Hints:
CATH architecture of chain A: Orthogonal Bundle
Distance between the termini of chain A: 28 Å
Radius of gyration of chain A: 22 Å
Largest sheet of chain B: 6 strands, mixed
Shape of chain A: globular
Structural class of chain A: mainly alpha
Helix content of chain B: 25-40%
Number of domains of chain A: 1
CATH architecture of the domain at 43-66 and 93-250 in chain B: 3-Layer(aba) Sandwich
Shape of chain B: globular
CATH class of chain A: Mainly Alpha
Strand content of chain B: 15-25%
Strand order of the largest sheet of chain B: 6-7-8-3-9-10
Helix content of chain A: over 70%
Number of helices of chain B: 18
CATH superfamily of the domain at 43-66 and 93-250 in chain B: P-loop containing nucleotide triphosphate hydrolases
Number of strands of chain A: 0
CATH topology of the domain at 43-66 and 93-250 in chain B: Rossmann fold
Radius of gyration of chain B: 25 Å
Oligomer: heterodimer
CATH topology of chain A: ABC transporter involved in vitamin B12 uptake, BtuC
CATH class of the domain at 43-66 and 93-250 in chain B: Alpha Beta
Largest sheet of chain A: none
Order of helices and strands of chain A: HHHHHHHHHHHHHHHH
Strand content of chain A: under 5%
Amino acid sequence: MNKNLPKWVDLGVIPLLTLALAFGVSGLVVLSIGQNPIEVVQVMLQGAFNPFGIGHTLYFTTNFIFTGLGVAVAFHARLFNIGGEGQAGIAGVGVAMVMLSFNWPHWTIALLAGTMAALVFGAAWAAIPAYLQAKRGSHIVITTIMFNLIATAVVGYLLVGPMQAEGSLPESPRFPAGAALPSLHDILAVFGMEFDKFAPANISFFLALIAAFLVWVLIWKTRLGYEMRAFGHSERAAVYAGISPLKITMVAMLLSGALSGMMAVNTVQGEAERLVLGAVEGAGFIGIAVALMGRSHPVGVVLAAFLFGILTQGGAELQFTLGVPAQMITVIQALIIMFTGSLENMVRIPLEKFFISAGKKGAAT
Amino acid sequence: MSVTTENAGRLDAVAPAIELIGINKAFGPVQANKNISMTVAKGAIHGIVGENGAGKSTLMSILYGFYKADSGKVKINGVLTEITDSRAAIAAGIGMVHQHFMLVENFTVLENVILGAEDGRTLGPSRRRARKELKRLADEYELDVNPDGVIEDISVGFQQRVEILKALYRQAEILILDEPTGVLTPDEADHLFRILRNLKEQGKTIVIITHKLREIMDVTDTVSVMRRGEMTTTIATNTTSPEDLAEAMVGRRVLLEVDKAPPKVGETVMEVRNLSVTDIHKVKRLKNVSFELKRGEILGIAGVAGNGQSELLEVIAGIGAASGGEIVMHGESIDVSKHANAQLRRRRGIGHVPEDRHQRGLVMPFMTWENTTFGYHNEPEYSKGFGLANQKYMMEDARGKMERFDIRPPNPQLVASHFSGGNQQKIVLAREIERNPDVLLIGQPTRGVDIGAIEFIHQQIVNLRDAGKAILLVSVELDEIQALSDRILVMFDGEIQGERLPENTNEGELGLLMAGVDPETGK
């Protein structure tokens, strides 16, 4: 936490300002390809929030909350888990294997089993890099990147081999009907609310919100979270306090992998109802941006995930309606990541100066 | 550097070497230097004393061009000079020896001396010139070092001489030394002072920043005292006393001696037997160290930093692993392998105030209530079910500790980095002392702590001793060891070089032991 700035500036004004800057520059980029930025924004927002679009926006948001929380948890122990992509991919395999092995009598049991599978497989894929980091000092960034590549290859192999359904498509058989999760449409119907019937958003969205709450409790209310933060700030201090670096590295990475893995419940079980190639769709990497922008705080992560959900869905609409290439959306996302992640000091330092001089004047009068 | 024309013709022989006029410098809301004026005569040794954060280093950094003053003027030899960076400072004949040496570890002495002052594209001519020049300087000022020695292989005392040589090689007429004796043995410090006196005789001007009042009395001609960014007095050294200087530094009368009654030594609490430590490079850091620690005594371990004291503390505290030997506490052997855990040590009644409070003793971005339980956070009173922390109690507990140890500001929600060095150390002490440990390990209790807080901290340590606890004190400040200890062990090169009682020894003898010399045989 910064001591020169009030909390509301640190957590509120700075992200908003960096975001505004990112959008400003994005506007110039949009202008340069001959589009009207205002129209682009209108189309994006309309696409993200119309009755059809919102179901997709929330679906993407769910993915980003999970991967963002995954990165955030590891961040608190100063571990940079770039492996969300691979952990979510392997978790998808786990979910598919479990779903395909029973004829599920009720979705509640299937959800429980799917969640367990996603947690365990996601955590397991993070376990090896974590152990190598803790025991051998192999840098977690390098190993998790490598494990992303391995995961892609493993999933690819499984989908053209042992797990492939009949036919030529690289995908698994469809899950039994009992594995299907209630969609947002089904859930809201219980309360008499209308929601798009074909929207992919499902019950996992609520799981994501619950996960965010649990992460908040873990980091700020439990002794384990305290130890993780202590370790994250200073390993030497942690050792002094009798906190085992091996334990914290393992626990933080397992939790991180498990959270990233949870997105498989949303995508594989909730939406596709089978395992397809490239099910993660880069959400693992967006999770890094989400955690950065959300400053590793669960509330920030949820808000940032929602923003990226809007961008993803609005971007698809943009491509569809105005023919703006999909790469343009990637450019905008990259600009946001750049401004919120690495150019934050551009906004922070002038603000700090401003508050210091304002504070001085306040003290003088 | 620019010389204004109005001053150009007014160079005269009696102009002071340094003249600072109305220097102001603020960092954010903190006014580090307030309207400071100071004059140092040519060929004088001038001391600047003050507590941490009084603004000494800032002032010297302005003189050396690291910082730009917000307002004020600098005159060197009577000439108004604008020092924009260290290059300009060097051009103005100012050299600086930093507290943390600015040397390239894997370069030789010669290479370090010419670094940044090379004569041309090839190094040959510079080397030859530097070698000759070093020879001359060595003869003239007792500044002998082997020009081909590699920095990482030579002692700290020699490294410091290299820093001085670097400045002289660049033709410095004014030499600034920042806390020069912090890392030296008393013997090395004496040698340094001889060098400084030689330099003075040759007409060089020396400014020395220190917090050790005795050194000021020993070596300086004039002394300036700084307090809270202001210069409170400048006075001829022979007309003042350490007590007066301390008062000027702190703003009130300070007890420089520790007030303590004779110890009531009880039974042995801890026995260390043949303890050895080998580091990852297979270097022996601790060699067969044995001693006993008894109830009601303060056992002081003297020695120059890096002679095994840190390793000794770490093994006892359960942070580091021993390669051999054992520690017995209350008749029971304790784990000294790499599986030792500091939390278990605490449960056995071993408290630890670590040498490095920024890296170990405190988590700097943690709030005080989080820091006052650090290491004890899994104890039942700080815990609730489901792995939750009892934050309400932690907060209450922190409030009590802050009050009893007079930690200011008394707000448990402030993060550790908000506090001054003295208050940070009090947070650590409060945490460790209030657990009522049988053995308290204390490393460098007053490093970076202001004089006012030193008095308080020393009193707390003595009180704990009087309550019948055993205290193992490691300090590189010989004064502190002598003032507090009931028994003194001197460490050199990982071994205990000797044991003395404070009343039967003196600084000279301890200094020899610290340098690895047997005072009787002189070897």
